[in-house]
């Protein structure tokens, strides 16, 4: 077994070797600019780009004409929110709705819209990480122009009720954007049925290359956007800039593989996740963050109470995972997503996100379980909080000297 | 986050983990920090009749730097009088462990833990 074991597939995935193989010729011999109309180099590149567009559209049951290439989900989110708000804000109204547990690419874009004079409602989530549809309905206003809700949460893997939100938005005539960066290849997406107007995609979360993504822009009913990147008018004016043919080919191939293999792969990954959860469930005071049912099989976000996340990461350096605690950055704030679930700060500081993917094996999961048992035992031996709990002290009654 | 060799050494081989009976004669207990802030340190000193710290133990909930800072001070306070122990400054701890700026608070917490343990010892002793 090769160490460290990669269990951070929601951060990024390796490029599938089949994808890499398909990309390489477009860097060397098939290097043409897809916008070149006057020779075969351009035609060849354009054909490859259009084939990839079909493949991306096929995964989400959309029309290829509805797919706009971008540099990734962050750009897609920016284009969708700024583009739609700027186009429709003046006529439909300047109110936007999103959720507190969204990715920063959405939250920070919303902050920018506030600076531009929009009002934004940030919805709370329930304890299980899902939004309450009644709370959502109550937040809608006559001047609401756009709603943005992520499909699958990056930290806790919960799947938001996109179909239901879409129905409500359509009924009220409000545009609906969905960040699906963590959803492709993990949940079935049918844009023919879903009442979603804009959807963001990323390649590198689905075994494609980094630096490429797409935005789905619905044609029926037609959605208009104000371009955020001006130039040669590529992508029907939505997003100028020479297309990165090799990246696009990679995303297309990655999404083709996802479509063909996702059912089988999710079943296999679900078994690995269950094996991990079962292996850890005999450790005392372990809590799963986020709903276990409305969740992708790839994600397990767990709090190991009385053990601090960063020290645990250090103890399990044979496992490449991420911590819900942001202690690793300059701020000492625990994860805003876990806090939005109402988890107290101590549990938020004690969380680890395991995200399982295509290349994990049973042996790797078993190794992880064994290592965690060992290290959590050692860290709890060292933890004054664990000692107090063993003595029967209720930590919430202790007067802490906050610093 | 990359850690210094010394932090990793203290983290992997923490010195003097454990505790004393806090009601025992000569034992001073200091507990500083808060779970919500991500670190809690418990430092205990055992002081002899001559006022010299004979032994020290710690338990820490916190990041690697917090564990290393508390492990280090248990080594440093031993053999010192309580007054000498109070002279240990967070800057010395930070320097010894080569803590990065974002982890300086761990060394401050360790200094506070010494002060709290000594204060507890003195309080018991004056009674």
What does this protein look like?
- The complex is a heterodimer of chains A (403) and B (127).
- Chain A has helices spanning 17-23, 40-59, 73-92, 104-115, 133-139, 162-172, 245-280, 309-315, 336-340, 345-349, 362-381, 384-390; strands spanning 5-6, 67-70, 95-99, 119-123, 144-150, 175-179, 198-202, 213-217, 286-288, 299-304, 319-320, 322-323, 351-355.
- By secondary structure, chain A is of the alpha/beta class.
- The longest helix of chain A has 36 residues, at 245-280.
- Chain A is globular and about 80 Å long.
- Mean pLDDT of chain A is 95; it is low at 326-331.
- With 127 residues, chain B is α+β, with helices and mostly antiparallel strands.
- Chain B has a three-stranded antiparallel β-sheet.
- In chain B, a hairpin with a 4-residue loop joins strand 1 and strand 2.
- At the A-B interface, helix 8, helix 10 and helix 12 of A face strand 1, strand 2, strand 3, helix 2 and helix 5 of B.
Short description:
Chain A is an alpha/beta fold and 403 residues long.
How is the biggest beta sheet of chain B arranged? 3 strands, antiparallel
As residue ranges, the low-confidence spans of chain A are 326-331
State the order of secondary-structure elements of chain A, H for helix, E for strand.
Answer: EHHEHEHEHEHEEEHEEHEEHHEHH
Mean pLDDT of chain A: 95
- Physical arrangement of strands within the biggest beta sheet of chain B: 1-2-3
Q: Structural class, from helix and strand content of chain B?
A: alpha+beta
Order of helices and strands of chain B: HEEEHHHH
Number of helices of chain B: 5
Categorize the overall geometry of chain A: globular
What summary fits the major beta sheet of chain A?
A: 7 strands, mixed
């Amino acid at each position: 077994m090769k160490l460290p074991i990669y269990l951070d597939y929601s951060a990024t995935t390796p490029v599938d070797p089949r994808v890499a193989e398909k990309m390489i010729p477009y860097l060397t011999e098939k290097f043409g600019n897809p916008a070149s109309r006057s020779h075969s180099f351009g035609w060849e590149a354009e054909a490859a780009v259009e084939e990839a567009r079909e493949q991306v559209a096929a995964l989400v049951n959309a029309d290829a004409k509805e797919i706009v290439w971008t540099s990734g989900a962050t750009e897609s989110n920016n284009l969708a929110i700024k583009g739609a708000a700027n186009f429709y804000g003046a006529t439909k109204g300047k109110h936007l709705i999103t959720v507190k547990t969204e990715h920063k690419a959405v939250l920070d874009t919303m902050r920018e819209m506030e600076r531009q004079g929009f009002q934004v409602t940030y919805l709370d989530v329930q304890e299980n990480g899902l939004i309450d549809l009644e709370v959502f309905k109550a937040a809608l206003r006559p001047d609401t122009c756009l709603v943005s809700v992520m499909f699958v949460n990056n930290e806790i893997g919960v799947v938001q009720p996109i179909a239901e939100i879409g129905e409500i938005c359509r009924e009220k005539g409000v545009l609906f954007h969905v960040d699906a960066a963590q959803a492709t290849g993990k949940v079935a997406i049918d844009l023919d049925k879903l009442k979603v107007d804009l959807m963001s995609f990323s390649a590198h979360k689905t075994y494609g290359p980094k630096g490429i993504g797409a935005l789905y822009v619905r044609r029926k009913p037609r959605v208009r956007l104000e371009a955020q990147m001006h130039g040669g008018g590529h992508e029907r004016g939505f997003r100028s800039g020479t297309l990165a043919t090799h990246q696009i080919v990679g995303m297309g191939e990655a999404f083709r593989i996802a479509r063909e293999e996702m059912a089988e792969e999710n079943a296999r990954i679900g078994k690995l996740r269950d094996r991990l959860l079962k292996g850890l469930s005999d450790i005392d005071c372990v809590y799963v963050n986020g709903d276990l049912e409305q969740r992708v099989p790839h994600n397990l976000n767990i709090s190991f109470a009385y053990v601090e996340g960063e020290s645990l990461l250090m103890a399990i350096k044979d496992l490449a995972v991420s911590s819900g605690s942001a202690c690793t950055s300059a701020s000492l704030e625990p994860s805003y997503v876990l806090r939005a679930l109402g988890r107290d700060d101590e549990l938020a500081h004690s969380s680890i996100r395991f995200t399982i993917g295509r290349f994990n094996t049973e042996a790797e999961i078993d190794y992880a379980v064994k290592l965690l048992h060992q290290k959590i035992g050692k860290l709890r031996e060292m933890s004054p909080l664990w000692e107090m709990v063993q003595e029967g002290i209720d930590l919430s009654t202790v007067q802490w000297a906050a610093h | 986050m990359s850690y210094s060799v010394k932090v990793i050494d203290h983290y992997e081989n923490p010195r003097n983990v454990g505790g004393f009976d806090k009601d025992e004669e000569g034992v001073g207990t200091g507990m500083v920090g808060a779970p919500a802030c991500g670190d809690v340190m418990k430092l205990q000193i055992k002081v002899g009749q001559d006022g010299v710290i004979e032994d020290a133990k710690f338990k820490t909930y916190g990041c690697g730097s917090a564990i290393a800072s508390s492990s280090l001070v248990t080594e440093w306070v031993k053999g010192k009088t309580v007054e000498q122990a109070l002279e240990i400054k967070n800057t010395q701890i930070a320097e010894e462990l080569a803590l990065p700026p974002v982890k300086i608070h761990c060394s401050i917490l360790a200094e506070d833990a010494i002060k709290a343990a000594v204060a507890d010892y003195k309080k018991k002793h004056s009674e």
